[in-house]
Design a protein that fits this description.
The protein is α+β, with helices and mostly antiparallel strands. It is 34% helix and 28% strand. The strands form two sheets. The chain has a three-stranded antiparallel sheet. β2 and β3 form a beta hairpin.
Length: 140
């Protein structure tokens, strides 16, 4: 059963120059894993790499918001700004992008153990100017 969907699109040019940001600043949005791969890329590819991961996290927040509503877990509200550091996009089997999520951090904020049956589905796409991500959250 689908609990929530999310989509996000970002302009890659927003991320041009981010390679000059301090690691401390970048870690507020991206994980060490994500930054280690990004640092191996040229400036343009670096921007695309970060842009599409940013879009993925934003799309996840949208899908998760809908999922929480559908699960009736909206009693405790919070900002998703805290959560970026608990989410990373990694390469799964056949280089398929997947989320690695610290669900415990979300469950602490909500005061509920809701994540054990949740599955996230992620699709990423980018080209020179734009990056987009689609996320579906489902439950068995």
């Amino acid at each position: 059963m689908i609990l929530g969907t999310g989509i996000d699109i970002v302009d890659v040019s927003r991320f041009m120059g981010w390679s000059k940001y301090s690691k401390e600043r970048l870690l507020k949005v991206f994980s060490d894993y994500e930054l280690s791969f990004a640092s191996q890329k040229s400036e343009g590819c670096f921007a695309q790499y970060l842009a599409v991961r940013f879009a993925a996290k934003e799309a996840l927040f949208k899908a998760l918001s809908a999922s929480l509503v559908n699960l009736g877990l909206t009693k405790n509200s919070f900002s998703f700004q805290f959560a970026r550091q608990y989410i990373e996009v990694i390469s799964g089997e056949w280089e398929v992008p997947i989320f690695k999520i610290n669900w415990h951090a979300f469950e602490e904020k909500l005061g509920s153990n809701f994540s054990k049956d949740l599955k996230t589905h992620l699709s990423l796409s980018h080209e020179k100017e734009y990056a987009t991500a689609v996320v579906i959250i489902s439950k068995d």
